[in-house]
Fold this protein.
Amino acid sequence: FESLSSSENGVSGSHDPSLIEVDGTFYSFSTGWLNGGNEIRRSTDLIHWDYVGVTFNNFQGNAPSGESWDTEYSDVLDALHAPSMDTISFWAPDIVEAADGGYWLYTCGVYGRDQQTSPDVWDRACIFLCHSDDLTPGSFSYVGMIFQSVLASSGSRVGEINAIDPQIIYDTEGKMYMAYGSFTDGLYILEMDPHTGLRAAGFNEVYTDSEVHAFTAGRFTEGSDGDKYCGTLLTELYAAMEAPVIARHDGVKIYNDDGTVKETVDSRYFFMSSYGLLASSYNMRYGISDTVTGPYLDYAGEELYSRYGYDGTGYKAMGAYQFVYADGSAMSMPDGRYEAEYNVYAPGHNDLFTAQNGVSVAARINRYYQAEVSGFSLFVNQYYLNSQGQIVINPNRYAGERLRTVSAEEVAQITGGSYQGVLMQETEDATSAPRISSAATFTKTGENGGTFTYGDMSGTWTIFGDYFIKLDAGEDGDIYYGGVSPAWIEGLNAAGLTVTAVGQETGMSLWFNSDTTEAA
């Protein structure tokens, strides 16, 4: 384990991360406000991060073409009706390897007019493509325009797609796609050209406001320019959902409860997005499909959509929570910035990333519920697939742990069977207070498992395979499938075990962290 000290409590100010690995070094690209590009950070272990700079180098000197930044990126200025590049924010990037070497950066330019000083009361955004040979600040040259949006600054935005949050995914045949979209009119997917990085159907030029509106108005007429421009709808319309990410896992094995393989799925796609309001009710949910364009279904066989504005369908992989242990210990951050306990609040806008060593992580935003702990940080959590081929996310920040064989004896004896548990629930309003953990007990009564209690929940648990676990909460409860993994338990500052599972009838995540304070 790499012990996570309080001085390494995430990376302050990192928003909307996208990860890439280059020769064993990891890079995180994230939103840049009015600071000259997307922010770049570097790590050798996915734990400690160094700030590198911004993609457009604060517009210092000339752009890679030798022209001024405003000249090289004139398409972006035209699409946004912006006077200069330094008036634009650059949101939610995705960074991927380019076909012929170097790297493609898909990023969003965002520009909002001041309604008090301009009659042109539109908020404009565009997704555009850049290329860099080596990821250094200032090396990103303009390639082409991908998608534009023109939204009313106030009132209804229904019927218009927001041109933000691009994310690239390849299918098993090497076809390239980009998922995108946010809030106003659903999330979409476009086929891309894997050789150029641009759209497969063309439409890589700058369009007028009226042309953009015409495209979105005609997007459901099959074969029309609007259909080609906007792509395939992945979610229901008018949904409080954003930040789509699609991860592909190949050779996914589905297991019987005795650890034998039931079937093997050639490729499984996981489509995750963030529901609710990014500063208060964010929660991460996903659906599953055997094809990249969907449909993506949840535990109940429903396609993903948002309801009530803050929750919806889908497996709820993560919402707000805090682990507090028997002696009152909790996750804390006395690092000179704050002297306060913290929690995981409004987690979302995540990347799903698998490193070359096989470790899969969700890199996400973390906010803090307490008023004295403001802002947001980059947090990285390991995820894995359970015996049903579903994603479960370790609630503890990644500290270098690897999956290994775990026995029933270890589960029951590591802390005398004492754990703290958190069960995700629906988000009822725009400010979802964290779910606070409560005590749980695991008792071994048989060779491969035993009984557990957690609040009003009680039932049986069984270990099978190397690390899979099944928790059966009885006739009035759910059945949860997950895994048991080593983890660095924050708040206790100690190595322990975490149980990470998801309900088969509710889609809610259920977590247990071993509690050494109770055992002591």
